[in-house]
Amino acid sequence: MFDANAQIIHDLKKQSGPAAANGAVLIRHESYEHPYPHCWRCRNPLIYRAVSSWFVTVTEFRERMVELNQQITWYPEHVKDGQFGKWLQGARDWSISRNRYWGTPIPVWKSDDPSYPRIDVYGSLDELERDFGVRPDNLHRPYIDELTRPNPDDPTGESTMRRIPDVLDVWFDSGSMPYAQVHYPFENRGWFDGVDCADPDQRVDAHYPGDFIVEYIGQTRGWFYTLHVLATALFDRPAFKTCVAHGIVLGSDGQKMSKSLRNYPDVNEVFHRDGSDAMRWFLMASPILRGGNLIVTEQGIRDGVRQVLRPLWNAYSFLALYAPKVGTWRTDSRHVLDRYILAKLAVLREDLTRSMEVCDISGACEQLRQFTEALTNWYVRRSRLRFWEEDGDAIDTLHTVLEVTTRLAAPLLPLITEVIWRAVTGERSVHLTDWPQADAVPADADLVAAMDQVREVCSAASSLRKAKKLRVRLPLPKLTVAVADPERLKPFAELIADELNVKQVELTDDIDTYGRFELTVNARVAGPRLGKDVQAAIKAVKAGDGVVNPDGTLTAGPAVLQPEEYNSRLVAADPESTAALPGGAGLVVLDGAVTPELEAEGWAKDRIRELQELRKSTGLDVSDRISVVIAVPAERQAWAQTHRDLIAGEILATSFEFGDPCGGVDIGDGVRVTIAKAG
Fold it and tell me: Which residues cross the membrane (predicted)?
């Protein structure tokens, strides 16, 4: 397309020379860069050229498209009135014809003589056969172009009706998918419309509009749009009821994934190393299903394995390892941990049902991740001793939890849940079962709320311990928990003490002694409503004159702020020893003063840990009793003697002697030991 450039420039230079009669024609000659369209596939440069086209007059029913859009459930929700809604409001007439060979021929025949104009539009094979006397068996070019006939409006009989050379925009094909795929309206009218063809008064399940579609968010200008245009024009209703608009999967370099650039992990290697469930989870749990973009990294995929797949598998493996008998479905245990995990499972069932019904897949993934955390890092870990002792309540509860959890997680993790389900139940497939009913497991909202707060207390206190660099097995004197309702935590004080390895747990509602609530005005939210009063409110809050009312509103100067118009943050008075609970629910204060007695007990617990590792490395079974000979440095003799029974009991030692262990193993801090299976 640049072939004429050299000649044009030559002519301009010639006309601009000294012989030019009217002065210079060529004012300036230079090369410069500018944006230019290129084919996205072959990268060749393109030019714009105006051509005649056939249009759908979308502007005639644009307002109706906007109205019908309100009947569609969008996820993410902002697409409805945002990206898609605004596109509908500015919709223009749609050019549906293309100057190509391949594609669906436009069924329009036109006179080849402008003196006798005539246009025929055909909607069926019957109409073509009626006018052309033949029923075509191939509707594509070049065969359909062979159909011609004399122009009925030409009295001379010399002009001919010929099909126009254009083909349909492929998006017209895509937008016609719901009915074109079943040859509607020529066939399957009852299936499509929900009317029994044998008895028109009898309604059956309609297959239009579609229940659900999912595609890239850019299809708000593509498939989603053309579906909606044609559905509005033809049926005056939406083409689909629910739509998920996802983002773009990007390569590890942040660019669009490309086969030529190879800017993404090898899929086969990921499947081989982490499994396809890992990739599936990585995609579904990410922002991509909320319309955001996602950079594919191997670390991101492995995080899903670490956070969900491995813990879920470990819970099953724990049951298989420590339950010598096959568990049964049972939900009547009175142990508080069993009741909690069953009630937590009931909450998961409700939350997942709600999320899946509105296509919030990433939200459902997060709910499953949180439950898996509670199952493995709280219930199973806190129940280990019960499983070692073959507690039937614990075994049956975990069996029941895994049975329900695999059914709930099956749509998200189809492969690992299938393996666990078949192993736990012996049945054929988890994907042949029903979604658990609301009464599958007992609910207890109060217990869930209380135990979740216990877990938050333990998490906050553990963070304090870590910040103070106080090892987990070192006992500490006291933990103070300041919350609005300390009575709710009172039944769990002993559990908290054991979990955190503290000697005393003090519960109080005196939050003000250990911290204060810091208020700030959310000017972005409050500003549009309050106007100039928002500045007065900000000054009042900074001066400490803000008052939170019983109904949750905040009185600040001349203004009363709604709960969403201000933020409240609980700030600790002593940040080094105090941590806030999530949501400003309270504070925990950890006393880190270590006495010699506590140091001795911590030393003993460290030795227990090392002896347990030695048992494991020597191949002993978890239930094997052992004999121990141990040598302790002189400065640790008193500590060892004081806690002899504690150490022996924890490591299942029937014989625990102080002496010289010939060829013993050094287990740290100068301690040497030999162990053997007791006879």
Answer: none
Please give the helix or strand (H or E) that residue 541 lies within, else none: helix 533-542
On whether residue 457 sits in a domain, the answer given is no
Q: Which of 124, 139, 165 is the last residue of a domain?
A: 165
pLDDT value, residue 295: 84
What six digits make up the tokens of 458? 């333990």
Q: Which amino acid is at 123?
A: G
* Secondary structure in 3-state letters for 346-361: HHHHHHHHHHHHCCCH
- The answer to whether residues 182 and 201 belong to one domain is yes
**Burial of 60 by CB count in 10 Å (0-12 exposed, 13-18 middle, 19+ buried)?**
exposed
pLDDT (0 to 100) of residue 597: 95
The DSSP string of 560-608 is: EE-GGGEEEEEEESSTTTEEEPGGG-EEEEEE----HHHHHHHHHHHHH
> Does 616 share its domain with 671?
yes
Between CA 599 and CA 609, with CA 604 as vertex, the angle to 5 degrees is: 125
Tens of pLDDT, residue by residue over 490-521, are 999 999 999 999 999 999 999 999 998 889 99
By the 8 A CB rule, do 400 and 340 touch?
Answer: no
300 and 363 both lie in a single domain = yes
CA distance 66 to 86: 9
Q: 392, 332 in Cβ contact below 8 A? A: no
Examine residue 624 and state whether it is found in any structural domain, yes or no.
Answer: yes
And the tokens for 296? 């594919």
- The span from the CA of 595 to the CA of 269, in Å, is 54
Task: Give the span between the Cα atoms of 482 and 511, in whole angstroms.
Answer: 5
Q: For residues 366, 256, 273 and 271, what is the CA-based torsion angle, rounded to 10 degrees?
A: 80
472 within a domain of the structure (yes/no) = no
416 and 332 together in one domain = yes
How many whole angstroms separate alpha carbon 476 and alpha carbon 493? 15
Residue 384, token pair as written in the block: 């280990």
Last residue within a domain, chosen from 188, 216, 246: 246
Number of domains composing the chain: 6
Residues in the chain: 679
Considering the domain architecture, whether residues 143 and 290 belong to the same structural domain is answered as no
CATH (domain of 629): 3.30.2320
Q: Which of 456, 308, 469 is nearest to 378 (CA)?
A: 456
- Are both 25 and 77 inside the same structural domain? no
In this structure, how many other beta carbons lie within 10 angstroms of the beta carbon of residue 583? 9
User: Do residue 34 and residue 61 come from a single domain?
Assistant: no
Q: How far apart are the first and last CA of the chain?
A: 95
* Beta-sheet pairing, 199-203 with 665-666: unpaired
3-state secondary structure at position 110? strand
Give 52's Cβ-side CA count (13 Å radius): 3
d(CA 139, CA 145): 9
Q: Which stretches within 289-442 are classed as H helix?
A: 298-304, 310-322, 336-357, 361-374, 381-382, 384-388, 392-409, 414-425
Can you say whether residue 442 is alpha, beta or left, with left for phi > 0 and alpha for psi between -120 and 50 degrees? beta
The tokens describing 606, both together, are: 């460290």
- CA-wise closest residue to 556 among 516, 515, 520: 520
For the chain, residues with pLDDT lower than 50 are none
Per-residue pLDDT, 202 = 62
Q: Are residues 68 and 211 in the same domain?
A: yes
In 3D space, the residue among 513, 566, 514 whose CA is nearest the CA of residue 540 turns out to be 566
Q: What is the pTM of this model?
A: 0.81
Domain limits for position 534: 515-572
Reduced 3-state DSSP string for 24-41? CCCCCCCCCCCCCCECCC
Helix (H, G, I), strand (E, B) or coil at 465: helix
DSSP element (H, E) containing 246:
strand 240-246
Query: What pLDDT is recorded for position 390?
Result: 86
Domain-embedded: residue 209: yes
Phi, psi of 587 (to 5 degrees): -135, 150
